[in-house]
Structures are given as structure tokens and as C-alpha cells.
Design a protein that fits this description.
The protein has 123 residues and is α+β, with helices and mostly antiparallel strands. It is built from 5 helices and 7 strands. The strands form 2 sheets. A 5-stranded antiparallel sheet has the order 4-3-2-1-5. Strands 6-7 form a two-stranded antiparallel ribbon.
Length: 123
């Protein structure tokens, strides 16, 4: 059974007051940085091309608030198209919000560990 993703299950309790950013896959374009607002999901590519780039900006909060990008859809529709088993590839879907940031899990940099595994598999 495919789990159903809904805004009430996915968003934090303070979503109305929070500044929520993420990424979605836009068919024909690729990954797009987005802001999740109560009335929809909006393009932030005018602010930064990656989440990493946005988070490195000193004025990131102001830049997101000032951006008036195109509305790419409503969150419920995007969530419904996110699960790979039920996805329509011609429609956008949500991606993990992190892109080029180095992730740490249990004190180990994820990227380094991932590269080691790839090298081991190729050997």
C-alpha cells in the first residue's frame, strides 16, 4: 500500500509562521528551489539555484520574503505526486530539500562515505 502524503502530515505545526523552503523536480527543467506558503509552492530560482547557495547567503530570509516567483502548484497536489510508485513523470514532485550541503550522520561526512562506497563498488 502506498502511503498518502498530506500537508497536515508533512508540515510543522507552526507552518503558518515558518519560512519553509524546499526543492521540487520540474519536468523539462530539473530541480527547482521553492518556498512553501499557505497558498501554494513558489519558485525561488530568482534567489538561488540551489538550497546550499541560498543557505550561504547572509540575507537569505529577506531574499526569500522579497522574491515573487511563479506559483508552481499547491502543496497537496505536489505531495500526492511525490511517491515514486504513483508519480506521473509529466507533473512536478517534491525532492529532498538538501542538495549540495555536506551531511553528517553519526559524526561522519555523508559525502565522503558515499564516495568511498562508490569507489569500493567500482573496484
Amino acid at each position: 500500500m502506498t502511503p498518502e502524503l498530506t500537508p497536515s502530515q508533512t508540515l510543522p505545526q507552526d507552518a503558518e509562521q515558518a519560512l519553509l523552503i524546499g526543492r521540487l523536480w520540474q519536468p523539462g527543467v530539473g530541480p527547482v528551489l521553492v518556498q512553501v506558503r499557505p497558498d501554494g509552492v513558489y519558485d525561488l530560482s530568482g534567489v538561488a539555484s540551489t538550497c546550499s547557495e541560498l543557505l550561504d547567503r547572509a540575507d537569505r530570509v529577506e531574499a526569500v520574503h522579497a522574491q515573487r516567483g511563479a506559483r508552481l502548484g499547491d502543496l497537496a497536489t505536489l505531495l500526492a505526486n511525490t511517491h515514486p510508485d504513483t508519480r506521473q513523470d509529466s507533473q512536478p514532485w517534491l525532492l529532498a530539500p538538501c542538495d549540495l550541503q555536506a551531511l553528517k550522520a553519526a559524526g561522519v561526512t555523508f559525502v565522503a562515505s558515499m564516495l568511498e562506497r562508490v569507489i569500493e563498488e567500482q573496484a
